[in-house]
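Example: 50S ribosomal protein L18.
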Amino acid sequence: MNKHSPPPYNGIGLSKMVIPPPVRPERVLKYLKPYVLRMHFTNKYVNAQVVHTPTATVAASASTQEKDLRRAMVEAKENTRDVAAAAKIGNLLGERLRAKGVPAISVFFKREQRYHGKVKAVIDSVREAGIELV
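Written out as structure tokens, the predicted fold is:
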């Protein structure tokens, strides 16, 4: 073995490694918004998830890629990427958040996102489902 050869394989693969969430000091945690809604729109699907910021975990998510929802939308000949699909995703996400006991969320906008169209449909339907926006 020379200095250019890779280290020997010790048997631990990537699937066995556990990556802990980032450790943040208390002075930073008090300024973080606890639950943040993040949305992603592709040419085919609508995705939305709520992230618990202090632990960097996903509290709830909804997508038109989910097997049951996509199958139901295809059978009803509905589009999986339009404003109506975004409203369905927001409603489903709001129900899942209520089931988990999350009372309020804040919204994270990407640079190109404005409160219009699909973004507005997701946010309004989450609000109609009984989740407060902070």
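The chain has a mean pLDDT of 87.
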